[in-house]
């Protein structure tokens, strides 16, 4: 595992809810990242940890390799990859995301 993959692994496993995004929860830098934050707020998540991939090109590429997922944002709950904003929205609308967050 490379240094970048190790750093990502520690972030993913070190936080119950981890979102790799463009910008921050307070200032999202793209619509998809903003939507991801809004969905998590709507689920009542108050322990959200975020990482701004725009500040670290190695993590920006590394996170895509880590999950074998080409886009950002990426949500991890309880150390497991959940998906991007489209999957988050589908799961939120069906109630699956709320259940997953409640269990983690």
Give the strand line-up of the largest sheet.
Answer: 2-1-3-4
Which descriptor suits the 3D outline? globular
What is the typical, i.e. mean, pLDDT?
Answer: 97
Tally the helices.
5
* Low-confidence residue ranges: none
The CATH superfamily is identified as Glutaredoxin
**CATH architecture grouping:** 3-Layer(aba) Sandwich
What's the total number of strands?
4
Q: Please give the alpha-carbon distance between the first and last residues.
A: 26 Å
Helix content: 40-55%
The percentage of residues in β strands lies in 15-25%
Largest sheet: 4 strands, mixed
| Structural class assignment | alpha+beta
User: Structurally, how many domains make up the residues?
Assistant: 1
Radius of gyration: 13 Å
Assign the CATH class.
Alpha Beta
Encode the helix/strand succession as letters.
Answer: HEHEHEEHH
By CATH, the topology is Glutaredoxin
Give an account of the 3D structure.
This protein is α+β, with helices and mostly antiparallel strands and 104 residues long. It has one domain (3-103): Glutaredoxin (3-Layer(aba) Sandwich), CATH 3.40.30. It has helices at 3-14, 31-42, 57-67, 85-94, 96-103; strands spanning 17-21, 48-52, 74-77, 80-83. Strand 1 (17-21), helix 2 (31-42) and strand 2 form a beta-alpha-beta unit. Helix 2 packs parallel to helix 4 (85-94).
Offer a concise description of the structure:
The chain is an alpha+beta fold. The chain contains five helices and four strands.
